[in-house]
Amino acid sequence: MKGPFHLEDSLDQIAEFFHKVHDAGVTPLSAGGDHSVTLPILRAIAGERPVGMVHFDAHCDTGDDTLGSKFHHGAPFRRAVEEGLLDPRRTIQIGIRGPLNDPDTWKFSLDSGMRVVPMEELHDMGVKAVIEEARRVAGDGPTYVSFDVDGLDPAYAPGTGTPEVGGFTTLEAQLMIRGLAGLNLVGGDVVEVSPPFDPSGGTALVGASMMFEILSVLAPARAQGKGD
User: Fold this and answer.
1) Segment (H or E) for 159
2) What total of structural domains would you count in the chain?
3) How do residues 78-114 score in pLDDT, each as one tens digit?
4) Domain contains 198
5) In whole angstroms, what is the distance from residue 37 CA to residue 30 CA?
6) Per-residue model confidence (pLDDT) at position 1
7) Is the pLDDT of residue 226 over 90?
8) Average pLDDT in the 46-72 region?
9) Within a domain: residue 37?
10) So what's the pLDDT on residue 91?
11) CB-based burial of residue 65 (10 Å sphere; 0-12 exposed, 13-18 middle, 19+ buried)?
């Protein structure tokens, strides 16, 4: 009997679709799904060279085996580093917090060279300094943007599977995404929106709004000949 996280077939199908998107010269902006969907997207668009990443989340998502599988929503970026898709030294994780972040998960992010910005540090630094840090880490190379709505405080996005109190606001999120303008952005996603968990529709609106913000920095990158 297969475990609940036996996702390999689904990941292969997603990668196959995004290979077609990438081969057509399209810069993808995707809606999850849980965060495991980012791995097959990276398999499609980062096959020629590893990419950097600006990652907004409450969790590092660099875990390992869970319930008998290495492929689940808590491990996509560990797998991406191991597969040579993600350059950890050009990866920044913003908003990390909460009791689900065990030392082993943090250890992989830090040992591999990722820049982890816990929520407490974001609070102390301020949004402008975090933007500058993200730009420094990403540099001039191709960079992917991945936005998990649980990075937001659940007051703004309760409709998600693993909410963590003490997150950033929607305005802070908008400002941080806008601050990525001019980077060599090659794609992005918004993940972990679960509308049934928020019948008000508020979380769905937030997710769509964050996708619009990412689109607004992806489009100029493509127009300027970046996104390659």
Assistant:
1) none
2) 1
3) 999 999 999 999 999 999 998 866 666 678 999 999 9
4) yes
5) 9
6) 40
7) no
8) 84
9) yes
10) 98
11) exposed
